[in-house]
Inverse folding.
């Protein structure tokens, strides 16, 4: 009886209400952290953050850092995507390619990009170039693996069905393999964007002149905690916004799927 | 020759299939000979693993025979062709296409303009009574409806031969009975040569002119049973002696082979 009533209450609060409560809880936790002597050093409360917004806008660095980071992310991701698609198809179609390439993709994929950034900088020099290269590499790896799975997963009876309806090799690719792979391509894009953002901070760790990641380190050096926390929150907002947009795209384009994978 | 083979639509001429895997050779078909007449409805029964699907795939051109050949109207087949349509057990609908687009798929591949393809597709969608679902996606359909779409899609390209691999195997008994009746009706409306695999002996007797019983590994034709019952064969028929005798006879043949497999 009691449980029933509780369940009724849980269901009666709309999603927006829960979101609001969740937000309140976070603010409360943040407040508690900010008044504690130790954690308060890392978590200045909302008024300090608002002041920090003022500061970074006045200094003109917020826009500069944001644009710089986004250029690196977009370029790195774009290169990653246009190279991952053919690589994934080559791996799926020519088994020798898969046998030779895949172990190394898996190997490198498990190395945190932060580890090899200095190596890239040595060859590529400082500035944007190493950032783009590192993001390219990281997104290429994750997207190749994901799209490759998709091509391998294409239901063989669909290919047979298309063949007996008169499909030639070219038709098979355009009308069966490509649409069947679309959900995996979109998943790859979502994972790729997420990896691009997480890699960005590592990519900007050496020799960057602007960017969200570079600025966080420079704030850290000058003990400017509030702007640092502000930037961290902003990175989170960018991440979740892009994920939401891509998920919406996924629903739009692959609503025909029986079940949706994560 | 023309006089002699006039009525033979499909000639299966000593077809042999050997799969070569890592564990060695597997003889799936060991010399299958069968003449299928124009507009004949053939049902194939046999224990699972006896090579029924292998034979169907060879006729469809999706697999090559190791030796022997299949002739369609006296011409040796080589690869797939739209004069041979296939309906698969797992429906094999394109999940990203609506019912209408699925049925139009083969017509578009022929290069037919959209409106003409749509008109023909609609005709066959009506034939399987799915006109209320033209814009639905496969995921929105029940198993029976999916298989109806698959049948409409196969019919739409107007094949001369329809190959069906346990098309109703995944459906519940009631839907299956209904689709059997529909299939006979469409077959009578638009005559085709049908090659239908099933593991359901009753289904075979309801549908077929001749029932082919295949033997266990290596697959061969064991017996051919003529079903001289008039169409449409209703459910009441299942109580009649003639039907029950046929069922007992065919079931007995299949069961012997089933025991063979168990050994
Ligand atoms: N691609 C394949 N490679 C190796 N063996 C196969 C392959 N396809 C089928 N077989 C084997 O050939 C035999 C006949 O298979 P199949 O034609 O599917 O039988 P059925 O449809 O009568 O159940 C089975 O023993 C099966 O394991
Ligand atoms: Mg089979």
């Amino acid at each position: 009886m009691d449980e029933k009533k509780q369940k009724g209450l849980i269901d009666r609060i709309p999603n927006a209400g829960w979101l609001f409560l969740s937000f309140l809880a976070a603010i409360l936790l943040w407040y508690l952290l900010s008044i504690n002597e130790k954690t308060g050093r890392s978590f200045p409360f909302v008024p300090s953050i608002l002041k920090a917004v003022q500061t970074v806008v006045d200094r003109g660095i917020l826009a500069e850092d944001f644009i710089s980071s986004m250029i690196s992310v977009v370029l790195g991701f774009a290169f990653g995507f246009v190279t991952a698609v053919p690589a994934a198809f080559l791996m799926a179609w020519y088994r020798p390619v898969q046998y030779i390439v895949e172990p190394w993709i898996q190997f490198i994929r498990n190395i945190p990009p932060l580890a090899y950034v200095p190596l890239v900088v040595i060859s590529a020099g400082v500035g944007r170039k190493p950032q783009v290269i590192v993001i390219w590499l990281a997104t290429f790896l994750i997207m190749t693996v994901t799209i490759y799975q998709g091509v391998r997963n294409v239901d063989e009876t669909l290919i047979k069905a298309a063949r007996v309806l008169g499909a030639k090799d070219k038709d098979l690719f355009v009308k069966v393999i490509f649409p069947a792979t679309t959900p995996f391509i979109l998943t790859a894009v979502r994972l790729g964007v997420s990896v691009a953002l997480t890699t960005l901070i590592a990519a900007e760790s050496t020799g960057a002149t602007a960017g969200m990641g570079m600025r966080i380190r420079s704030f850290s050096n000058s003990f400017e905690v509030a702007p640092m926390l502000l930037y961290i929150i902003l990175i989170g907002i960018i991440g979740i916004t892009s994920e939401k947009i891509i998920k919406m795209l996924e629903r739009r384009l692959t609503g025909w799927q029986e079940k949706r994978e994560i | 020759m023309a006089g002699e083979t006039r009525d033979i639509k499909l000639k299966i001429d000593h077809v042999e299939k050997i799969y070569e895997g890592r564990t060695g050779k597997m003889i799936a078909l060991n010399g299958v000979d069968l003449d299928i007449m124009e507009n004949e409805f053939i049902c194939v029964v046999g224990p699972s693993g006896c090579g029924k699907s292998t034979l169907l795939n060879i006729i469809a051109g999706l697999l090559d025979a190791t030796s022997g050949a299949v002739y369609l109207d006296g011409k040796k087949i080589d690869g797939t062709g739209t004069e041979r349509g296939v309906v698969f057990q797992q429906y094999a609908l394109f999940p990203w296409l609506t019912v209408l687009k699925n049925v139009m798929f083969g017509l578009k591949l022929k290069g037919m303009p959209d409106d003409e393809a749509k008109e023909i597709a609609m005709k066959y969608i009506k034939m399987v009574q799915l006109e209320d679902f033209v814009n639905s996606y496969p995921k929105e359909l029940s198993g029976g409806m999916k298989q109806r779409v698959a049948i409409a899609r196969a019919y739409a390209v107007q094949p001369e031969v329809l190959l069906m691999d346990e098309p109703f195997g995944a459906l519940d008994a009631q839907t299956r009975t209904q689709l059997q009746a529909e299939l006979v009706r469409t077959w009578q409306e638009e005559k085709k040569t049908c090659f239908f695999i099933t593991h359901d002996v009753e289904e075979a007797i309801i549908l077929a002119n001749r029932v082919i019983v295949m033997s266990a590994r290596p697959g061969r034709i064991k017996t051919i049973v003529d079903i001289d019952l008039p169409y449409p064969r209703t459910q009441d028929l299942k109580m009649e002696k003639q039907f029950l005798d046929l069922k007992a006879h065919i079931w007995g043949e299949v069961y012997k082979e089933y025991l063979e497999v168990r050994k």
